[in-house]
Automatic annotation (TrEMBL):
Residues 128-198 form the GHMP kinase N-terminal domain. It comes from Pseudoclavibacter albus. Belongs to the GHMP kinase family. GalK subfamily. This is Galactokinase. Residues 310-370 form the GHMP kinase C-terminal domain. The keyword ATP-binding applies. It comes from the Bacteria. Residues 12-59 form the Galactokinase N-terminal domain. It holds the Pfam family GHMP_kinases_N. Gene3D superfamilies: 3.30.230.10, GHMP kinase, C-terminal domain. Keywords: ATP-binding, Carbohydrate metabolism, Galactose metabolism, Kinase, Nucleotide-binding, Transferase.
Length: 402
């Protein structure tokens, strides 16, 4: 599918700008298997990139203008290189491509290319104007990190075109800066790490406390007659929503009350034994973070030692915590999770931030056709828009395509 996407953005660029792009770059979406929200408290994440990708066709220009066109909406995003800056948190798609240009430009001024490193004024790095055409196979608001995918693809392109040779981890940090300062979503690093570090037949384990990234072998799902399945519930979510921000604030408040820098420092026994007065909601948010960090470690151990058939209980416990303690499930998500389990899923849970988005389920291969049919029927009976169902496997991270 990505080949068609690459050709589409290259042709879209030609039609939008009447010239050829200098290249096409892409990045995957991601599946968060377990560990959601813990990276904001120095926690752990586990996931993988998927074949559904975002692609950008890019060429430099000499007049300092930046224009981003897309087939997703009719309008374009425009800015001047000399004055580009985040206009404050904004719930607009423009925040991501323009924010990434700004973040990479700032990086270049602080870390200029080798041929300007001897100049006493690092701001000599001025970058270039840009024409960009972007498109994506990912559902916008579907909980599969379309925003992180945009940042990873464009950041990788600019690193090459501007000869900055930015390390993947630094690109992830720049993308997080875009999320926080341009889009107003106070998210952690994990989504960006997965989009940049993912490899075929690999999972990505991220420890936010030490900023350690481990790329590990995927277990042989085919040998167990299992398949990773994603269901986009078509119930859109937004990382910058006030509901998600309140949960982050609650966790920070819990850490403050308990006298620790982050909830990573605590065990569940510490939370339960504390005599600190704490709002019940804040307590439950903290309990999710603390127990989820433990579950990520247990999940990783069990997956590698006992195999994919042994992880169902851990994934189901993770979803229960997201529903009951973190409060990010919905009726549609619960219906989807319950139906996946009824069809024999080896674990099913909301993936990503929640409050909409997608569900991840590890399904027996022979159960998928009936699962698809019952999903369509059940959604129709509820009056919900028909879900998108994807059978996915791990895919390469951000890269140049053409």
């Amino acid at each position: 599918m990505s080949r068609e996407l690459n050709l589409k953005v290259a042709q879209g660029f030609r039609e939008a700008f009447a010239r050829d792009p200098q290249g096409v770059w892409s990045a995957p979406g991601r599946v968060s298997v377990i560990g959601d929200h813990t990276d904001e408290q120095d926690g752990l994440g586990f996931g993988f990139g998927i074949e559904l990708r975002t692609a950008v066709a890019v060429a430099t220009r000499t007049d300092g203008k930046i224009t981003v066109a897309t087939d997703l909406v009719p309008e374009r995003a425009e800015a001047e290189l000399a004055s580009i800056t985040p206009s404050g948190p904004t719930a607009s798609w423009k925040a991501y491509p323009l924010g990434m240009v700004w973040a990479v430009l700032e990086y270049g001024r602080e870390n200029p290319p080798a041929d300007t490193s001897d100049d006493p004024d690092p701001s000599v790095f001025l970058g270039t104007g840009l024409d960009v055409f972007l498109s994506t196979e990912l559902p916008i608001g579907g909980g599969l990190s379309s925003s992180a995918s945009i940042c990873a693809a464009l950041g990788t392109a600019l690193s090459e075109l501007w000869q900055l040779n930015i390390r993947p981890f630094d690109l992830a940090c720049l993308a997080q800066r875009v999320e926080q300062q341009a889009a107003g979503a106070q998210t952690g690093l994990t989504d960006h790490i997965i989009c940049l570090y993912s490899e075929e037949d690999k999972d990505v384990f991220f420890d936010a406390r030490g900023n350690d990234v481990s790329v590990i072998d995927v277990p042989n799902l085919a040998a167990s007659q299992l398949q990773s399945v994603i269901v986009n519930t078509r119930e859109s979510h937004r990382n910058w929503s006030q509901e998600l921000e309140q949960r982050r604030v609650d966790c920070a408040r819990a850490a403050e009350l308990l006298g620790v820098q982050s909830l990573r420092e605590l065990r569940l026994e510490d939370l339960e034994a504390s005599d600190v007065e704490m709002d019940e909601r804040v307590y439950r948010r903290a309990r999710h973070i603390i127990t989820e960090i433990t579950r990520v470690l247990e999940f990783t151990r069990v997956l590698r030692t006992d195999g994919p058939n042994a992880i169902a209980d851990i994934l189901d416990q993770s979803h229960a915590s997201l529903r009951e303690d973190y409060g990010v499930s919905t009726e549609r998500i619960e219906f989807t999770v319950d139906l996946a389990r009824a069809h024999g899923a080896r674990g099913a849970r909301v993936t990503g931030s929640g409050l909409g988005g997608s569900v991840f389920a590890l399904m027996p291969v022979d159960a998928i056709p009936a699962f698809r049919a019952d999903l369509a029927e059940g959604y129709a009976e509820h009056g919900w828009e028909a879900p998108d169902v994807y059978e996915v496997s791990s895919a390469a991270g951000a890269r140049r395509e053409l």
